[in-house]
Amino acid sequence: MTQSRIDRALADARARLQRLPAGQVPAALVIERNVLEWRCDPTSDARLPQAVDDDVEWVLLCSQGYTSSLAAAALVDLGLHRATDVIGGYQALSDAGVLAELA
Fold it and tell me: Is the model's pTM score more than 0.85?
């Protein structure tokens, strides 16, 4: 069986204490901020299977969009040039009803 190429990955960088009361994001990889770089870096021995190369679009999510914007910048610094974040974070998705559509 041939493994398909991964073009985009949604990563929830919220800490467990933020995720539990607010809720999970369907289809998101949970990668807490403190381990993000070495889990997303395709050259890291500790990378996730989704971290196949530097052309994966990492879409980062946090509670309100502040941490994820800095996290995306850190991934860009690693050479992951397509890293970006969800403006407004989990709260914005929830307020807009997007999370209900993903479920």
Answer: yes
